[in-house]
Amino acid sequence: MFALLGRRNAHAMDCADMVIGAAIGRLSRVKDYFSADRSTPRQDQFYGGSQSLTAAIASQSFTGITTVIFRRPLIG
C-alpha cells in the first residue's frame, strides 16, 4: 500500500495495519483497518485492500473487560 523505507520522521501511525474491535455485552464488531498517516484509520477497502480476517469475535464481561479474538493469514 504505502512504503516508508528511508523515511526519517516516521510516526507509529504511518502505514499502520490494525484490527479494531468493540463489544457491548454479546454484540460485537471486529474489522480490518489501515492508517496511511496520523488520520483516522479507514477500512482496508478504502485503500484498495480487503478484509483479511478469517475469523473474529469480541465480548464484554460483566466487569467491563472487552476481549477481542481474531484470525488472519500472516502472509497475503
Largest sheet: number of strands, sense, barrel closure: 3 strands, antiparallel
- Note the overall shape: globular
Average pLDDT score:
85
Helical content (DSSP H or I, runs of 4+): under 10%
Radius of gyration: 15 Å
Q: Give the strand content.
A: 35-45%
Overall tally of domains: 1
Strand segment count: 5
What is the H/E order? EEEEE
Structural class: mainly beta
Tally of helical runs: 0
End-to-end Cα distance, whole Å, is 13 Å
**Biggest β-sheet: strands ordered side by side in the sheet:** 1-2-3
Query: Uncertain spans, ≥5 residues at pLDDT below 50?
Result: none
Entry summary:
By secondary structure, this protein is mainly β.
Protein described:
The chain has one domain (16-71). With 76 residues, the chain is mainly beta. It is 0% helix and 42% strand. It has a 3-stranded antiparallel sheet, with no helix packed on it. It is globular and about 45 Å long. The model has no long low-confidence stretch (mean pLDDT 85).
Could you name the key traits of this structure?
single chain, 76 residues, mainly beta, three-stranded antiparallel beta sheet, two-stranded antiparallel ribbon
Which helices and strands, and how do they pair?
Layout: E1 16-24, E2 27-35, E3 42-43, E4 55-60, E5 66-71
Antiparallel strand pairs: 1-2, 2-3, 4-5
